[in-house]
């Protein structure tokens, strides 16, 4: 066991310097992600007792993300990518401070806090995606995302439990909101630490080229459809677990405990898959994630009680990392192909991809709001996720088509450039071979 552990540590140490710095930066920042994703929603739910306000908060976040992606593209011509990446992480703490300073959670205050959080996510994900694309290649992306997912899932065990029970203990002695304010201060300190590590990397900005386009190769439209289907679930899943657990289990301590169920097994499984799986296995990994997601939704809809929530969370802890582990390499492979075919800045595709995600997120959140207003909050929490999970199964058909067409395009592009050798990318020696997809 110890020998295997040393071998894995040695394998990580053999990765490029920027690869290791990016993983370490994201690992530190991952300490605050459960707070942002779960407990901020729980704070809104506790102080407003209105699930629709939680969803509206999420919608303002989703609106701020694509706008910030666009702003980030212009700022990259003036500022270091490390500066913008760090600013995104630190803005998450600022957003939480704004939220905690509100005396009453009215829609205006929620919208302001949500927009700041959206800016935080926009700067963070725009630069994180570009850096992950530029420092990895198609052969080590499974390992990269498997490693990140391993740490994220382990952190998802520890942090929700610690924070959940901390809120309850401090809340019993003083007040719940005091506990939330202490956590907000800790979040700010952690984001500073992540920023310090980030600046140790030798990250380069994208080439200063045009990055706003409205017409793309037809192949890109397939990825946008896949992004919309992914966003469909995101629009609901970021806040749904917190709302379900607060309503059906009742307390933040239970929230943290439920989040940790099965997470250790999931973390180990994600690392093994990321370490061992080949690019050709991505479709199978993606299919497994979609099936687990559908099972989670069906159990929640059928039971809609404390047991149903626990089962929902267990399957979700497997579904989300499996989907991400397959999705991001598929996305980056498409960008690798099209950026060479169309001779465009990779950031142009990262920016446009966010449009597809936003369309799906908006539709997912709108589905919840529609069911909540025209039927009931219970109907929204119970059935919206089932509708979304069934629609998400279509992602498998789209992903399969993307992978098949990608193989054909790589063959075609390499044949056209055979007199010059295989197509060179900015950060990898050559385009991935057909057998690797």
CATH homologous group name: MFS general substrate transporter like domains
And the CATH topology? Growth Hormone, Chain: A
Q: Work out the oligomeric state of the chains in this entry.
A: single chain
**Can you tell me the number of structural domains?**
1
Order of helices and strands: HHHHHHHHHHHHHHHHH
User: What is the CATH architecture annotation?
Assistant: Up-down Bundle
Number of separate strands: 0
Radius of gyration: 21 Å
Binned, the helix content reads: over 70%
Overall SS class: mainly alpha
Distance between the termini: 32 Å
Q: Average pLDDT value?
A: 83
User: What is the CATH class name?
Assistant: Mainly Alpha
- Uncertain runs are 422-430
Count helical runs.
Answer: 17
Largest sheet: none
Coarse morphology: globular
What percent strand? under 5%
Could you provide a short overview of the structure?
It contains 17 helices and no strands. With 437 residues, it is mostly helical.
Description:
The chain has helices spanning 2-13, 17-29, 33-48, 51-75, 81-101, 107-135, 141-173, 176-198, 218-237, 240-248, 252-260, 263-276, 282-303, 306-341, 346-374, 377-392, 394-416. By secondary structure, it is mostly helical. The chain has a single domain (10-423), classed as MFS general substrate transporter like domains (Growth Hormone, Chain: A, Up-down Bundle). The chain starts with a helix and ends in a 21-residue tail after the last helix. Residues 415-437 are annotated as: Disordered. InterPro entries: MFS, MFS_trans_sf, Sugar_transport-like. Keywords: Membrane, Transmembrane, Transmembrane helix.
């Amino acid at each position: 066991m110890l020998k295997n552990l040393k071998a894995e540590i040695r394998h990580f140490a053999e990765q490029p310097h920027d690869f290791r710095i990016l993983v370490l930066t994201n690992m530190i920042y991952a300490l605050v992600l459960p707070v942002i994703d779960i407990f901020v929603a729980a704070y809104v739910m506790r102080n407003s007792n209105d699930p629709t306000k939680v969803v509206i908060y999420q919608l303002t976040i989703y609106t701020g993300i694509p706008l910030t992606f666009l702003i980030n593209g212009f700022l990259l011509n003036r500022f270091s990518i490390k500066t913008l990446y760090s600013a995104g992480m630190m803005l998450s703490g600022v957003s939480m401070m704004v939220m905690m300073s509100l005396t009453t959670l009215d829609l205006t205050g929620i919208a302001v806090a949500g927009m700041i959080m959206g800016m935080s996510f926009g700067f963070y994900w725009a630069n994180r995606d570009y850096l992950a694309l530029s420092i990895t290649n198609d052969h080590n992306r499974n390992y990269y995302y498997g490693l990140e997912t391993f740490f994220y899932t382990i952190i998802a065990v520890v942090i929700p439990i610690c924070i959940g029970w901390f809120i309850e203990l401090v809340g019993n002695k003083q007040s719940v909101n005091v506990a939330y304010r202490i956590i907000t201060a800790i979040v700010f300190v952690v984001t500073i630490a992540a920023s310090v590590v980030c600046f140790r990397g030798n990250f380069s900005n994208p080439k200063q080229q045009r990055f706003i386009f409205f017409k793309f190769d037809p192949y890109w439209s397939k990825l946008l459809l896949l992004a919309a289907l992914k966003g469909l679930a995101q629009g609901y899943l970021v806040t749904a677990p917190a709302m379900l657990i607060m309503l059906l289990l009742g307390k933040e301590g239970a929230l943290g405990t439920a989040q940790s169920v099965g997470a250790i097994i999931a973390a180990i499984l994600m690392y093994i898959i990321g370490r061992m799986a080949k690019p050709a296995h991505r479709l199978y990994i993606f299919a497994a994630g979609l099936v687990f997601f559908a099972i989670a939704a069906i159990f929640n809809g059928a039971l809609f009680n404390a047991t149903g929530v626990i089962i929902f969370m267990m399957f979700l802890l497997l579904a989300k990392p499996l989907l991400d582990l397959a999705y991001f390499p598929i996305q980056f492979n498409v960008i690798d192909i099209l950026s060479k075919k169309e001779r465009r800045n990779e950031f142009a595709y990262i920016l446009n991809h966010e449009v597809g995600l936003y369309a799906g997120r908006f539709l997912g959140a709108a589905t919840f709001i529609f069911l909540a207003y025209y039927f009931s909050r219970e109907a929204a929490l119970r059935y919206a996720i089932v509708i979304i999970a069934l629609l998400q199964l279509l992602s498998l058909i789209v992903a399969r088509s993307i992978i098949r067409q990608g193989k054909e395009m790589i063959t075609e592009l390499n044949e056209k450039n055979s007199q010059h050798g295989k197509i060179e990318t900015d950060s990898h020696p050559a385009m991935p071979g057909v057998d690797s997809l």
